[in-house]
């Protein structure tokens, strides 16, 4: 088995149905809980930014929704124009 490299993995990830989530995690630094906590109101298409206001986590088998871990989590993440991978 050959290891995934940026060149080999980019095509596979671009065709993945969860491409937008991979992109947010890898290129915008959002944590898994922040991605799971995203809502449409967190997306500013006109301003080109995304702000994670909450996170989702599981504690003792129960799902909890709460604020992001750090103040930096509330900072807007700029969005860039992307060509469709399909």
What does this 3D model show about the protein?
With 86 residues, this protein is an alpha+beta fold. The protein has one domain (6-78). The chain is 27% helix and 21% strand. It is built from three helices and five strands; from the N terminus they run H-H-H-E-E-E-E-E. The strands form two sheets. The chain has a three-stranded antiparallel sheet, with no helix packed on it. It is globular and about 35 Å long.
* Beta-strand residue percentage: 15-25%
Strand order of the largest sheet: 1-2-5
Q: Give the helix proportion (percent range).
A: 25-40%
Total domain units: 1
- Shape assignment: globular
In DSSP terms (H or I, runs of 4 or more residues), the helix count works out at 3
Q: Oligomeric form of this entry?
A: single chain
The total beta strand count reads 5
Mean pLDDT: 80
Protein name: Tyr recombinase domain-containing protein
GO molecular function: DNA binding
Keywords: DNA recombination
Organism: Phytohabitans suffuscus
Brief characterization of the structure:
The protein has one domain. 27% of the residues lie in helices and 21% in strands.
